[in-house]
Specification:
This protein has 326 residues and is an alpha/beta fold. It is built from ten helices and 15 strands.
Length: 326
């Protein structure tokens, strides 16, 4: 097949639509992949709707993750028939991405499909789940252990949040889940949360320091929420910050840092070195409860991506979405 279907984003006017492509239109790379699955992350929602300038080249095929089978390769690590996963590296932002039956990328960006995961499961994890693991690893590197006290997860019913809850609960943490969706309390408890709090408790402007409530946190929300999370983190605790669902701003003070020794750990999933990438995927394959992964995932067809992209920005998507491309 040299012709294939993909979502194409054009700039003036900003528009995303399904389109036919020819293999000759694919961008530079040494591995061509027949894509079987992708997923919908918050960033994909921003790209497809144009709500934030995440796409930096036009036309663009969005989709920041994909899984599939190598069709051709001149990269020494990959040969036709190999199952691979891609996340990050600006794919779907400045290099043609995963909402496409075919993709051509640098082999250095790919990882082999982790042992024990199917392509669909790897996309149930996707960038969101991989980022949740990076956040867990950052907390561990900072010396955070479950005996220090509870861990807070914000944006709990979203992609990063739901996988973070499952990983942290499995690792023995007492997890406090902050959500705006009270009706998802049973779902979050089933994933491993011990306590649910209303995100409204954290989303308004707060005091520089508050009562110490958690030893650690994984925050995918930013803005006032992150400021309040920091203000209520206990002495020498740590907060892994990875998202901006409430906003890009951080209206805080130095009080949590200089009076309580709290550490703010930044998480970027896009360009982690290959060794870290492989370690994170290997841990996800070994540590993430498969039954819970299935329960927090929904599967959609390729033609549902546009609707789901709009829904994820409205906070209407629960957990993770697998997209069947092929
Ligand atoms: N740093 C990185 O490399 C990296 C990688 C992946 C994702 N991210 C970022 O992490 C965030 C989460 O990504 P995702 O794919 O998990 O998205 P998602 O599935 O949409 O989850 C975000 C969650 O945040 C909560 N939320 C939404 N709007 C909010 C608001 N206005 N105020 C407070 N909470 C709000 C909602 O949870 P509840 O309904 O439970 O309240 C929502 O489900 C995004 O900002 C994304 O850009 C960053």
């Amino acid at each position: 097949m040299t012709q294939f279907k993909a979502i194409r984003i054009d700039k003036d006017p900003y528009r995303a639509a399904y389109a036919d492509f020819d293999e000759t239109e694919l961008m530079e790379g040494d591995v061509t992949v027949r894509v079987s699955h992708s997923t919908v992350n918050y960033k994909d929602g921003l790209a497809i709707t144009g709500k934030s300038p995440v796409v930096r080249r036009f036309p663009m095929i969005p989709g920041i993750d994909f899984a599939g089978v190598v069709e051709s390769s001149s990269h020494p690590d990959f040969k036709p028939g190999d199952e691979v996963v891609l996340n990050g590296w600006g794919v779907g932002e400045n290099h043609f991405g995963g909402y496409s039956q075919k993709a051509r990328v640098k082999g250095d960006w790919l990882v082999p499909l982790p042992k024990g995961l199917t392509a669909a499961q790897s996309m149930a994890i996707g960038t969101a789940g991989y980022t949740a693991m990076l956040a867990v690893m950052a907390l561990e590197k900072q010396g955070m252990t479950p005996d220090r006290g509870p861990v807070l997860v914000t944006g709990a019913a979203g992609g990063v949040g739901s996988i973070a809850i499952s990983l942290l609960a499995t690792a023995g943490w007492r997890v406090i889940a902050s959500t705006g969706r009270a009706d998802e309390a049973d779902f979050l408890k089933h994933l491993g949360a011990s306590e649910i709090i209303d995100r409204a408790e954290l989303s308004a402007p707060g005091k520089p320091l508050g009562k110490e409530r958690w030893a650690a946190a994984v925050d995918s929300v930013g803005s006032h929420t992150l400021a309040n999370v920091l203000a209520q983190t206990s002495y020498e605790g740590a907060v892994a910050a990875c998202g901006l669902a409430q906003g890009m701003d951080l209206p805080t003070s130095v009080a949590p840092f200089i009076l309580r020794g709290v550490c703010l750990l930044g998480i970027d999933s896009v360009t982690k070195p290959k060794a870290v990438r492989l370690q994170a995927w290997d841990r996800l394959a070994r540590e993430l409860d498969r039954t819970k992964l299935a329960e927090l995932s929904t599967t959609i067809g390729f033609y549902k991506v546009m609707d789901t992209a709009a829904e994820i920005l409205q906070g209407k998507v629960r957990g993770r979405v697998i997209v069947e491309i092929d």
